[in-house]
Design goal:
Distance between the termini: 6 Å
Strand order of the largest sheet: 2-1-3-4-5
Structural class: alpha/beta
Number of strands: 5
CATH class: Alpha Beta
Length: about 130
């Protein structure tokens, strides 16, 4: 198990908790959480996580706007981003890939498979 840090950005506390427990338990990764795009960006600048799991549907600043700000920031541009989304048709996947996202994981996700989905998307071993 590698010492990776993952930032989970989701406005739903329940999703944050489930993701945190799963990724820490299954993969042994350190997991930080943020409840909004703005909070996620500021944590990403400070912590420089190895990857970000980003919810698409959030109030104020949605996941796509958050991703755009992360990409335009030299401090966070190189951090891989995986979207967590309920909208995941093939056309959405293509659009997300064109924007530069590593993957999109459908919500609701299977908690026991989340770590392997993240690892596979990023080319990490568990």
């Amino acid at each position: 198990m590698t010492n990776k840090t993952i930032l989970v950005v989701d406005n739903e506390e329940y999703i944050q908790e489930v993701a945190k427990i799963c990724l820490e338990t299954v993969a042994g990764w350190k997991v930080l959480t943020a409840s909004s795009g703005k909070e996620g960006i500021s944590k990403a600048e400070i912590v420089k996580p190895d990857a970000i799991l980003l919810d698409v549907m959030m109030p104020d600043m949605d996941g796509l706007a958050t991703f755009e700000k992360l990409q335009n920031n030299p401090a966070t541009k190189s951090i891989p981003v995986i979207l967590l989304t309920a909208k995941i048709q093939a056309s959405d996947r293509r659009r997300y890939a064109q924007l530069g996202m590593k993957a999109a994981i459908a919500k609701p996700f299977n908690p026991l498979e989340l770590a392997s989905q993240v690892a596979t998307a990023l080319g990490w071993s568990l």
